[in-house]
Amino acid sequence: MKCSACVIVFLTLCLPSVMQAQDRVSIEANFQAWLEDNVWPRASSAGVNRTTFEAALSNVDLNWDLPNLVIPGRPDESRQSQAEFRAPASYFAPGGVSGTASIGRQMASRHATTLAQIEQQTGVPGQIILSIWGRESSFGRAAIPHDAFEILSTKGFMSNRTAYFADELIAALRMLEEGFATRDQMRSSWAGALGQPQFMPSSYLAYATDGDGDGRADIWRSERDTLASIASYLQQYGWNAGRDWGFEVAVPATVSCSLEGPDNGRPIRQWLSMGITRVSGRPFPSPEVDEVGYLLMPAGLHGPAFIVTSNFYVLKEYNESDVYALFVGHVGDRIKFGVGDFAGGWDRLSDLSRVRITDMQRKLEERGFDVGGADGLIGNKTRRSIGQWQEQNGERATCYPSQELISDIIR
């Protein structure tokens, strides 16, 4: 009896891991079939030959350690792990901001001639280019540890954005086919972003630029190509030469944080008439006063406030995150003008799970609020919907969720 009981306990403990191993074998086989039956026909139609396809993918296996995977046959338990989607204060750690700005000033001196030429050609200021370079790859010093084809094929097969990553896999195969990079050069981040500017393969095909005149856009080894490529990206997304990205402001209590967002723009002159002023005490530049500005409060009343321009939203095309674009603009100012920290401080807000935020967003949608989609991210539409809900319920709008506020909303 004792031996039988031991066997039962052993099987009970081991069965899940045995089943999981069997599942992985089956999923790996389905993955290889997907590469052959789905990816190869698409690649062939895109002009990729069989030799290139096999060189890229013949030895690729699934990477089970990546974030945001959706395992076939299991519930979607993916989690967003990027820093851009945590509480804003954590993104602006003083050491990271000042360190990036310090090296950025060195790079501004080192690349002064190149940056001046690029700004003349594209209208994109050098300090903005440097800030993106610093954020994306620590000015080319960050390790880029992953095999891009392993990352893109894994995420194209089983992630929460399979169609997107499958398209990027085809773009990466085209890069290899057209000789833009060797198989060994195709190293990426865990999300499949390539080289010093961290371009996705489709962005490389659309925006990569030969900045040093050697006939190819080498975003892995050439600093001048990297700088030119970042500027090309922003220019083609509509960077408005001569305009700033934004200004830190003081917002009076009479102006609700629920007025923020890119669809609530109005001439900066109108914001001034509502009592909004620059924290520096300086007036807005004369050319800006009659241009459209947008209220930005990325932590609601729990952090600094800004009036941003259309260029801020061009920066968001590089990374769809308010705090990313704010970091780039602010570090750019520190590189060019030597400014210090924001005047407004960040409250230490708790990081919230995407599941919990999604539950709140769905409840707000049920009540008629436009949160921009129940995606678990605290974007400007979610923030202002929170503020509008608070105002409807007789509360002062803070426009940022806490555990307690979420509980109140989903009740």
Element string (H = helix, E = strand)? HHHHHHEHHEHHEEHEHEEHHHHH
Strand order of the largest sheet: 4-6-7-3-5
Number of strands: 7
Terminal residue distance: 52 Å
Radius of gyration, whole Å: 24 Å
Arithmetic mean of pLDDT: 93
How does the helix and strand content classify structurally? mainly alpha
Major sheet attributes: 5 strands, antiparallel
Strand content: 5-15%
What's the overall geometry?
A: globular
Please count the helical segments.
Answer: 17
Helical fraction: 40-55%
Low-confidence blocks of residues: 7-16, 79-84
Task: Describe what this molecule looks like in 3D.
It is a single chain. By secondary structure, the protein is mainly alpha-helical. Helix content is 52%, strand content 5%. Strand 6 and strand 7 (305-308) form a beta hairpin. Helix 9 crosses helix 10 (223-236). The longest helix has 44 residues, at 2-45. The chain is globular and about 65 Å long. The chain starts with a helix and ends with a helix. 40% of the residues are buried.
